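[User] I have long wanted to understand how a fold can be written as tokens. Those tokens are not coordinates but codes from a learned vocabulary of shapes. Could you go through the record with me and say what the backbone is doing? Thank you; the sequence and its tokens follow:
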Amino acid sequence: MVGVVVISHEQVAFYMLEAARRMVGTLPGVAVVCASSADDSAVIMQRVAQACNEVDDGAGVLIMVDVYGSTPFHVAMSMLDGTGAGEVLAGVNLPMLLKLATIDRTRLSPAEMAQQLCEVGRRAIRIGSEITGKIDVGGNR
């Protein structure tokens, strides 16, 4: 089964994963790394490597990061060294984590999972006025 590591600034990943687990139940093979503003790249790299080792049973790891271009993102990208199956997906959101409960992580590669989860995340982003046709959120008519 492909392992998953969710990395975020501060405690965002922890709370998103906790919310997902409360909604859909256990998510096996998923670890969290929370990067503090006080952490340098080496500290984050050590935590990410440890988390990857914990969840990788040989099928590879998908690393999901909160912010594209951030230090955690660059650390995650440096983990893609070509020695094992892996992929990085930036912009993690709760719908992506909920999808982990139903996606077949035993048959997909990390790259295939990233594609599916990316699509789920994109579909979950909506602008309310595009759905309702109403644009005034202040209560004025």
User: Anything to note?
Assistant: The chain has a mean pLDDT of 93. The chain has one domain: 10-126.
